[in-house]
From TrEMBL:
Transmembrane segments annotated in the record for this chain: 20-38, 50-68, 154-173, 209-228, 248-266, 278-296
Protein name, entry field: Flippase-like domain-containing protein
Main localization (coarse): membrane
Pfam families in the record: LPG_synthase_TM
Membrane topology: Multi-pass membrane protein
Signal peptide boundaries: none
UniProt key word Aminoacyl-tRNA synthetase: no
Keywords: Cell membrane, Membrane, Transmembrane, Transmembrane helix
Subcellular location: Cell membrane
Length: 339
């Protein structure tokens, strides 16, 4: 180490707003179309039935959901021996929420970019964490919705087909010989062979994250976290006077609708999540008219998806404006073995 002052680490790249703006435009158009379909004169009074306290409670439950998911994030980093102090780790994790409206949430690889910029963690080493998060999100939603599918026979075919596909994917990823053969095959393509080392590194990380014990514990965390948002949905439905309402039914409708939106690979599941949620509420007889069903859908999406995007934007801005490392302090936790 030289005695000169260390060069401050480069900050994360500025957030590209173009895709977010397109997603917002899409949301406005979709929500506007839904509102016209449901009759605006009936929708506004329905929204007014839900007290502000219930909306704030739903946001609080979403925040606890993020706490569980942050625990999962930390668990993954620990298993990959990625050492990051918990405060910047929390900022990085929350910053990823701003990309919740990217297709399949793949934009959350932003977290890997921030880890590389600030802590020199190769993207190939950390990006599998984002994939594992999405995979266990799906498993958690499957766990919540499974009994409901059997009971209500709503979306059973799609549910079973998607579950089989996800389990098949996990099984294929557990086969080191199969994956290495695929990597070798891809490596023969022009301009791709140079990526083989990164692909092998990414797969090594993936195998670690998909070990049975870790997969079980992270799926449990996912089920608990998404159940909290389902509970928020129950609070909103209760305020709207839903008929024959139980927490079980609210969890099922929320899980199956969110699952369909996630599998659609649409930005934030926009359109399909909302449409399937309204349809399920009407089909199960929880609400008898489209206006209150749409009001419930708008409010749960506001307090989950859009609340998360807002939290993520604030976290990213905070992370970008963090003070540089103090003179003499290591820019990376890997230096001097600090944690």
């Amino acid at each position: 180490m030289t005695s000169s002052s260390p060069t401050p680490p480069a900050g994360p790249a500025p957030l590209r707003l173009a895709r977010l703006m397109w997603a917002l435009v899409l949301a406005v158009l979709l929500y506007g179309g839904f509102a016209l379909w449901a009759d605006l004169d009936q929708l506004i009074p329905a929204l007014g039935k839900v007290p502000v306290s219930v909306v704030l409670l739903a946001c609080a439950l979403s925040s606890v959901n993020y706490a569980f998911r942050f625990m999962r994030w930390q668990l993954y980093l620990d298993h990959l021996d990625i050492k990051v102090p918990w405060r910047p780790s929390l900022q990085i994790f929350l910053a990823g929420l701003v990309m919740s409206i990217s297709p399949g949430k793949v934009g959350e690889v932003l977290k890997s970019a921030l880890l590389r910029r600030s802590y020199q963690v190769p993207i190939a080493h950390s990006a599998p964490v984002v994939f594992a998060e999405r995979l266990t999100d799906l498993l958690g939603l499957f766990a919540i919705g499974a009994l409901g599918v059997l009971t209500f026979e709503f979306g059973a075919g799609i549910f079973v087909g998607a579950l089989v596909a996800v389990l098949a994917l996990i099984g294929a990823l557990q086969s080191e010989r199969l994956v290495h053969a695929v990597i070798d095959g891809v490596g023969r393509l022009p301009k791709v062979s140079r990526l083989q080392p990164q692909l092998r590194q990414a797969y090594a990380s993936m195998r670690t994250l998909l070990s049975p014990a870790l997969l079980g514990s992270t799926t449990l965390l996912s089920a608990l976290s998404w159940s909290l948002e389902g509970l928020a949905f129950w609070c909103i439905l209760d305020a709207l006077g839903a008929m024959e309402l139980t927490v079980y039914k609210a969890l099922f409708v929320y899980a199956i609708s969110t699952l369909l939106g996630a599998l659609s690979f649409l930005p934030g599941g926009l359109g399909l999540t909302e449409g399937s949620m309204v349809g399920a509420l009407l089909l199960l007889g929880l609400l008898s008219a489209s206006a209150p069903a749409l009001a419930a859908t708008y409010l749960i999406r506001l307090t989950t998806l859009w609340f998360g995007v807002g939290v993520g934007a604030l976290a990213l801005l905070s992370y970008e404006r963090r003070p540089p490392s103090s003179p003499g302090a290591p820019d990376s936790p890997f230096e001097h073995g600090t944690t």
